[in-house]
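sanity check both lines:
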Amino acid sequence: MLFFGHIGISAFFGLFLYLSPLIVGISSILPDFVDKGLLLAGLSPYTRLVAHNLFFGPALSAIVYLATKRKAVAIAVLFGTYMHLIEDIRTPLPWLWPLVTYDLVPVTGIKIVVDLFEIFTETIGLSLLVSLFVFKKNLIDAREKIIVVVKDFYDKRLVKKI
């Protein structure tokens, strides 16, 4: 997944979880900025290592929380970084690095592969991103209505069971 796919899809789902779409969107591209930045700086021969694992999100969230003392911001950062991992799941990831070593193939430069999946996710991501800016109020209202419907559904099921 590329830039708009990561930002748009993550920010959209973040909004429905009462998280800041801006913070979720920015944090959803941080793993690529970190790992690709290390590659371009000559500090790592891999495009997915330091920030593409299960430990980067919690570490970054802890730093953000210590700096801001705002739990909602730290949770949004964690959600964004984990959404990035979910969105990159179709390619191998070093999930438990540095606890586990992986046979990763070193790369000599950044290569962007554009296939049907990338075109699809970029289109969806950009569409969701635009809809967040244009229809944010309507999306928030829809979120509230969905919550009421789901709550009513579960309340009725609980009453039937009792």
Remarks:
- The chain has five helices and no strands.
